[in-house]
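Chain A, query sequence.
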Amino acid sequence: MVETGSSEQIFRGPNHPYTKLLLAASSDETAPRAPAQLHVAAHDAETSGCSFAARCPVALPDCRKAQPPVRQAGDGHLIACWRDASSL
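Chain A, predicted structure.
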């Protein structure tokens, strides 16, 4: 899990880059759309860090080395990412 929270929190953001891709894939026209740079091809690379790091357009070196910390993005809204929730 890279992000947890209420439906309102997830749809309102900030969102983990993977969550943004999932929301962009939604057929719901009211769902937020991901910027074009987030549409990155999947890689088969193994990683000991974040499982999305190989496909993430904003990955940091730490993303591939270790599991990201879980941060509060709001009351009950958690995001597992090396980047600060405000920069997502």
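Confidence is low (pLDDT under 50) at residues 36-45. The chain has one domain: 3-87.
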